[in-house]
Write a structure and sequence with these properties.
20% of the residues lie in helices and 31% in strands. It is of the alpha+beta class.
Amino acid sequence: MPEPKDLNRRSFLERVLSGGVALAGASSFVSALAYLFSGGDIKRKYERLHRVGDLDHFDPGYSRVIRLESDTILLGRSADGKFFAVSAICPHKGCLIEWNKGEGRFLCPCHAALFDIQGNVLSGPAQQGIRAYEINPIGDSVYLKI
């Protein structure tokens, strides 16, 4: 029967390093599988609801800009009663957008970019839309998901 090899310092470190590499690879593989099986819809850990006001303050045509965490958000209610919440920063040059309640659109006053109520570009110079946030009335309050 062969005798076990002496475990010297070098072989011990090689085994520890090999195990660490294998563990890191397995962890990355499991994370990739979780992402793929979620349909690419893994939410940010810190996503949560923030109360942004009383329901009776959100009359049709109402809008205001708020700063919440690191986001500047334009929120309000359209003339037909739909709630909206979008990034208040134009992706073109970083200007503060405005709500045009008469047309039901967002306008960047710096270069006249137009966006619809979902944040999609209607006319340039902006090449990408503005981020839309989920906003919902719950009971007598209005909540924004960040």
